[in-house]
Amino acid sequence: MCGILGMVSKNPFRLEEGLKRLKRLEYRGYDSVGFVTDNGIKLKKAGDIDSLFSCLSKEYLEKEINTFIGHTRWATHGKVNDINAHPHTDCEENIYVVHNGTIENYKELKEYLIKKGHIFKSETDSEIFAHWIEDELKEGKDIKDIIKSIFENFKGTYAVLVYIKNKNKIIAIKNKSPLVIGIKDNRIYIASDVYAFLDDTQSIIVLDDYEWVEIENGN
């Protein structure tokens, strides 16, 4: 079990807020933590969120951002180390992925992608999402068809947040792992548990299995 959180806001917010909200999900996993933002800030490491806070300066935490995805990990596939912490990326580091769940056929999918030239950095099943999406985009497929191919080919449980850097877009995909959306004014949250944003939302949407959401430019 892991915790995932996405935040998109038309009004800038501090990195510190994203991390504090992510900490609310630490009960779902606390052996590793990581995040990426729209202005290029990214970090992942083994350890809990407090250990991450301790190595970040006040100036760093006060940096303003508009997009954030973060992850707290409870290891299933792969050792507890910095490399296996989320987010995971594609070969070009344009696609960032955080994932809660387990992909049962990940070895088969990984072998398929390696044969197509993809280079994996981690031991996790989660990294497969980043390379799969990268591969499908290069083939000219649109997001709707890519999501359909994931639902058809990935066996297991997954709640996934995908950040596509060059489009500043977040995609949320849900199948048998919890994923909830919160909306307030010019801000959108997506998380494993409503507790991450319950104090700052006007409406809540609980995603069903095989549903997905695309967020671009705060919409």
Condensed summary:
The chain has helices at about 15-25, 50-55, 60, 105-115, 125-140, 145-155; strands at about 5-15, 30-35, 40-45, 65-75, 90, 95-105, 155-165, 170-175, 180-185, 185-190, 205, 210-215. The chain has about 220 residues and is α+β, with helices and mostly antiparallel strands.
What is the element layout, followed by pairings?
Layout: E1 3-14, H1 15-23, E2 32-37, E3 42-46, H2 49-54, H3 58-61, E4 64-73, E5 88-89, E6 95-103, H4 106-115, H5 127-138, H6 143-153, E7 156-164, E8 169-175, E9 180-184, E10 187-191, E11 203-206, E12 211-216
Antiparallel strand pairs: 1-4, 1-10, 2-3, 2-4, 5-6, 6-7, 7-8, 8-12, 9-10, 9-11
Helix pairs in contact: 4-5
Question: What does this protein structure show overall?
Answer:
The protein is of the alpha+beta class and 219 residues long. It has one domain (3-216): Glutamine Phosphoribosylpyrophosphate, subunit 1, domain 1. It has helices at residues 15-23, 49-54, 58-61, 106-115, 127-138, 143-153, and strands at residues 3-14, 32-37, 42-46, 64-73, 88-89, 95-103, 156-164, 169-175, 180-184, 187-191, 203-206, 211-216. The strands form two sheets. A seven-stranded antiparallel sheet has the order 3-2-4-1-10-9-11. A hairpin with a 4-residue loop joins strand 7 (156-164) and strand 8 (169-175). It is globular. The two termini are 29 Å apart. The mean pLDDT is 93.
Q: Give the end-to-end Cα distance, rounded to a whole number of Å.
A: 29 Å
Strand content: 35-45%
Order of helices and strands: EHEEHHEEEHHHEEEEEE
CATH-defined topology: Glutamine Phosphoribosylpyrophosphate, subunit 1, domain 1
Strand order of the largest sheet: 3-2-4-1-10-9-11
